[in-house]
Amino acid sequence: MSDDKRDILEVLKFELSFLEQGGYGRSVRTPWKATSVFQDSTSCLNFNDPARPHACSECLLTDFVPAEAREEAIPCHFIPLNNLGETVDSMERHSHQPELEEALKAWLRQAIARLESRRLPEKQHK
Q: What is the 3-state secondary structure (H, E, C) of the chain?
């Protein structure tokens, strides 16, 4: 479990909105540099900080990473995005950016729906 105090549902909704608005297109400031899913959005605790002061284990996205991948350099890139087990890492190597983004959008929508359905009973009991 991460130490991240942000609301996971809000972070995932923001990430989906960011993605739908073309968030991972080339940067105007660094058009020669490819963007990195999760790392180049405010979902990342180390966003815009090359010193990377926060360990990835502190991030709430770590909760979606399989245990065997939590020690990877970029653990969030090993979140299974679909039934085939494709991840950001595997899709960056074997797919085109639009395919990766569509898989990520689908995963985000499913994760958001699961979280919302879990929270609904909690709200009804209050």
A: CCCCCCCHHHHHHHHHHHHHCCCCCCCCCCCCCCCCCCCCCCCCCCCCCCCCCCCHHHCHHHHHCCHHHCCCCCHHHHCCCCCCCCCHHHHHHHCCHHHHHHHHHHHHHHHHHHHHHHHHHHHHCC
